[in-house]
Each structure stands twice: as C-alpha cells, then as structure tokens.
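Handover notes (outgoing to incoming on-call)

Open items:
1. Acyltransferase family protein: sequence verified, structure written out, both below. Nothing else pending on this one.
2. Nothing else urgent.
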Amino acid sequence: MDWLRDRFEFERDGGGHTIRPMEGLRGFAVLLVFLVHYESLLAPWIAHDAPLVALAHALETIGYNGVDLFFVLSGYLIYGSLLSRRQSFQKYFARRLRRIYPAFTVVFVIYLALSILLPAESKIPEDNAAWFLIANYLLLPDLWPVQPMITVAWSLSYEMFCYLALPLLVALFKLRDRSVTWRVTFFLSIAVAFAVYTAFNGGPVRLIMFISGIALYEAINNSELKIGNGLGAHALVVGLLFMLWPMAEPVGKSIKVSVLFVSFFVFGLACLRSSQGWLPMAFSWTPLRWLGNMSYSYYLLHGLVLKGGFMLLSKLLPPTGEQSFLHWVLLLPMLALTLVPSAALFFTIERPFSLAPRSNLADMQRSPA
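Acyltransferase family protein structure tokens:
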C-alpha cells in the first residue's frame, strides 16, 4: 500500500483541502470517457438486444461529457495560475508543453508503430501522410479539419487553444487589475456570445466549458457563494441526463453545452468549496483520486488497450449480436485491463517527466484532457 501511495499521491500545501475532491473529479471524468469506448466497441456483441442497445447508447452519450468536465477543471487551474501571479509566457508555455508532450509522444509512437504493423487498422492516409502525422503531433485535429490518429487527442487541440488564449486575454485586458465583477462579466459575455454564434453557424461550442471553470475559480476564491451537496449532485445528474434529449444541431448542441456549463459549475462549486459533506468526501475516495492523478496517461492509452482487448475477444468469442450478458460481465475486467498499461505510462513517463512537485493548487495542472 505504501508503494502505491508513494507513486499516486501528490504533495499538498496547508490550504489544499480542495485538491482531494478535484483529483476525484478527474477520476470520475475519465471513467465517463471509458464508457464511450467500452460501449462503442461492445456494440457488435449486443446489437440485437434493443433495450440494452438503447442503454449502451445512453451511456456512450453521457460518457462524452467526461471531456467537458476536464475542460472545466483545466479552465479553473490554468486561469487561476495565470491570475494569481505574473509569469513570463515562455516559462508558462514551456510548462504546458512539458505537461502534454512526454506521455503524448510515447503514445503517438505506439500508434505510429501499430499503424505500420497493422495497416488494416491504420488511420494514416496514403495521400499527405506526412502532413497528417505533423498535424496530429502539433495537436491540430478537430479545431482544424484533420482526423485524429489518437482517437481522444482531438480534445488536446482545445486544451492548447486554452493555453494560448488565456494568457493573451489576461495580458491584453489587464485582468489582474480588474474587479471580480468585471472579469466574470467579461468571460460570461464571451461564453454567451460564442454559444449564440455556434447555435446558428456551428463550431467548437465546447470551448465555453473552460469559461465555466474560470467562473468556478472566481466563485470559490472571491465570493461566499455556497452550494449544498444535494443541489450539486442533482445538477450533475440533470446536466448529464439532459444530454440524452434529442435536439437538432447546431442549435441543440449549443443548448446542451450551455446547460452542461451551468450544471458543472454548480456541481464543481459543491465539490470544491469545502471538504466537508458527503459529496466532496465521495470524490475524495482514494482509488478514485489515484485514477484522477494518472488520468492523462489513462485518457491517452485506454482506448487503444480496449481496442486490443476486444480484438482478442472477437477471436475467442465472435460477436453474434445476441450476447447481452457480456455487457455487465466484461465491464470491470475491461476496466482493469486498461488500468495496467496506463499506470505503467504514468509511472515511467508522465510522473517523472511532466509532474514536478508543486505546492500551489493553481499550478497543479495534471490532466489536460
């Protein structure tokens, strides 16, 4: 147990009572993302079971929003780091690159090697292969018309945009010298304007989730606003279930993300305002926190491991569309399967190369996706 604790725990300062539930929130977010890939890969085995297919689709849809929770936490942490102290852009951005690229580079090389060894599974196009690889390594997919080679890496382009945009906004509008009311009004105006624009024109509306994290930081650090545990839990449930409501895009997507913007703010405030209460205590559960601390490694690698696991399963038990029992039987074994290589990546690459000890909560940016 001590061996695991030494590798999964992080240093905390005396005022770091909010860190524990935040670590758990990361673990919860990456579990939601796990559901997306688990349900999609399991589909051929349960395709003829209408009720179970509907459940799988619902879980997959809800799971997508684990990424949005990561965006909220990133907005909170990066904005807090920038606002709390002046720092050179070069040093700031070097830390952000060091946070992302060591583990990403290893996984990128693994995907590249497997693309060569298993050409039938490769996403690398025959034409413009060099540009495809360069664009993927520079984290351009999704915000640019480039398919991600690493399935989940699309979200890293959003993170990189946040890394570049926030210091520019803080400096350009002198946000450190502004009042809390001015800053909150400024960012909420951007969120509303962008949500309205994307409702009519489409676009990456999920970028506003970073602003939900910014508002969360301002509320926790500059106000007495409190949210009860019950209200916070209800906000989470309502926000996630609302994603199941069928709505035509792009208006529907903007409405859904806007609802999630508010629900994750309320939920985050209930979890992070205080360590007291059953909700922050639930997200301070040690296994969930440890998963949260290695969530970036897990996020990058779990989809590939699941793919391999289901490829092996198809050899041993070919899908017939009528094997509904597998939905529940495989859930925990497949989760366990993804934990081992992800933990190895975390121990050998992410922690030693990307996670220097930090005492300041605002600098504890441990998982960019």
